[in-house]
Amino acid sequence: MTRAIFALIARDLRLAGRVGGSGALSLVFFLMIVALVPFALGPDLNLLSRIGPAILWLAAVLSTLIGLDRLFQADEEDGSLDLMSAAPVPLEGVVLAKVTAHWLTTGLPLALASPLFGLLVALDGTAMGATALTLLAGTPALSFIGAVGAALTASIRRGGLILAVLVLPLMIPSLIFGVSAAQAATGGTVPFLVPLAVLAALTLIAAVVGTLAAAAALRWPE
Q: Chloroplast as a keyword (predicted)?
């Protein structure tokens, strides 16, 4: 089963590379948000540095939604999802593989690029490193939560807006603790490891619950 899951991950990564994927679009959208917000707030560098982690996290949440509606919809349209459902691999394994591939092409590049984009919001080295670490720990939760909405809207054409309405409220806890952890690293009253541990726990919970819920949603039409 492990070999089949890795094969599914490699398949989705190859498809993302051929089609262009949502990873590049997510990075561009991420850069657009981070670049435009300072223009709206003005030249106050102290203000930008205080809310910089929140800007990066909000941009990451919104960027994760790009292409998320196609996570299962493309396979639903060409019949690949029916073949995967009939395969010996449990549907939960299929969901895990597809979400992992989505995070590798979307969440991971955002986390790795966040220190560079942090320069646009006047973050210092400590804040950049802390924000990147929180994004590495928290963006998998966004992908797993988004997978539930993607599974529910897999059979709905142009279901992107419905998907956003479904999953955005569920992403708020990860957003809160991600920003709290990044701000704690720059002199907050709470130790950095406390909100980071909560964020990691939310990711683990989202991985388990999101995988089971998305698989159940995909089985529902049957």
A: no
